[in-house]
Amino acid sequence: MSGEKKVEKKKISPSFIIAVVVIIVLLAALVYYATLPPKVEVVPTIVPTTIVQTALRTETLPGTTIVRTEVVTSLITTSSPSYTKTIPPTPISGGTLKVVEAYEPPGIDPATDFTAAGWAIIKNIYDTLVEFDWKEKKVVPELAESWTISPDGLKYTFKLRKNVVFSNGNPFNAEVMAYSLRRALLMKQSPVYLLGPLTPDGIKVIDEYTLELTLTTKSGAFLQLLASPIASAVDPLTVEAHGGVVPGQPNEWMNSHAIGTGPFMLKEWVKGDRIVLERNPRYWGPKPYLDRVIIFYRPEPLTRVLMIKGGEVDVAQIDLDRIEDVKGTEGIVIERIGPTFGVGVIQFNTVKYPTNDTRIRKAIVHAINYDEIIKTVLKGYGIRFQGPIPKGMPGYDESIEPYQYDPELSKKLLAEAGYPEGKGLPSITFMYPLDFPGGALVAQAIQADLAKVGITLDLLGATRSTFTALTNLPLTDPKRPELRGMFWTPDYFFEDGYTFMVGSDWTIIRTGYNNTQVRQWTDAAAIEIDPAKKFELYSKITKQVKEDVPYIWLVQVEAFVVRRYEVQGLYFDPVLTPGFHWQTVWLAP
Description:
Strand content: 25-35%
CATH architecture of one domain: Roll
Shape: globular
CATH topology of one domain: Dipeptide-binding Protein, domain 3
CATH superfamily of one domain: Dipeptide-binding Protein, Domain 3
CATH class of one domain: Alpha Beta
Low-confidence stretches: 1-38, 42-81
Helix content: 25-40%
Number of strands: 24
Radius of gyration: 26 Å
Distance between the termini: 36 Å
Structural class: alpha+beta
Mean pLDDT: 86
């Protein structure tokens, strides 16, 4: 939720590919721990390593008294017993969880903020009508107990929870929810697109606890959109006492204060240092186990390493290239979670020579050793996907294979395009951002792979401002790079956030790719309700895009978290990472 998202105000979060490395790091995500049976965690101790030389053969050199010994040098890890910790079978209430993250939110107004750091705070303080259960991959009730949808798919009627109050004691009802949604629509800030085809005129209060929302057009993702932070319930009395609603303008007071119905309250925000959350005693749902959560913001990677190793914090956002610094530290668990819905891709300029030639684009995608990059550069934290839809979403078609590493096919395609062994082919520029640690390693690996088939790749490490400036140049401009990196993360769980990459006006502006049939399929899938028909449309999109090659689908990232063994119950939400839903977290003794 950064980078172009705020500028484009579109359906997804495009940033930069080499952010793969950092985003993997930012994905400090965990599995929901079962708490019924007792659990034993094996926690590593510090394990020393010794350099050992073993003699293979000795001989006396002829005519001398010199004895030559051939040895093999190896690193031997000395046996050092790990210790085990027994986790209680049921959660324990109380305690303060301390966390360190890299980036501080710019604000925490649900109607305004559009960053992962901000959303991670907002979702712990505020509630929405519905929530998305990432474990079960379905929409579940939150402030709404139930809902119905009209046969034409345009009218949604919600029955709201009773006896819900804000943390200051003010009541929640249908009027409050209507005010909250109208406010967000009228303010028209960056995340407003997440309310989809809803307008202020489509919001109607039926009675104290019944709300009706009528859409201008059908949306297959409307319930998922209503789980977004922008759809949070805010206290009208609080808002009106602090600036009210000014159309088209943010509310600065709300950006730094919060009164919600959620499980936690904002206790303190020391800008540039920390945010402190405390348990909301008026929360309508299951009470949090923790008394409070303190989130420190430290942009320096080494500082975060030292804080978790020194016991200053319980959970830390650790960069991938710093993971070795915490391995083997007593009491620290590095937990691997599995694939997220964040994808790293490289965008082709399909207008500019020579990447306007599909054969050249195909030669490039088949020249990249994806598995080796994932294994060596990304340290195994990623999987292949065939794009644009990530694996794990209902629209992902397993029968369609990703681009395969096939350098011989690349050479054949180059020859067909008139460039045998790459002779005569001009160099191609790949732009990546300088401010992402490790990004150059990914770019260099791709450069080396392409060189093996005769393609010269010029690497352009750009500052954020330069990256944006070059991105905004016309596709035909000589300075516009032929390859541009992005990282795509979900704002909500729905495939159209990914097919947007290949079937929208944004696609044409950024890549020049404009397949009319793909656009028609994309538009149809976005409003289709029938799962089978929707899957068929997404499958058609995937197959056609694979043939047209407007992108290099590099990696679907995997997540890990660095925590102390005491931290239990962390719930993985890829939209909030590196933050968490703190309601389920507890501390073992």
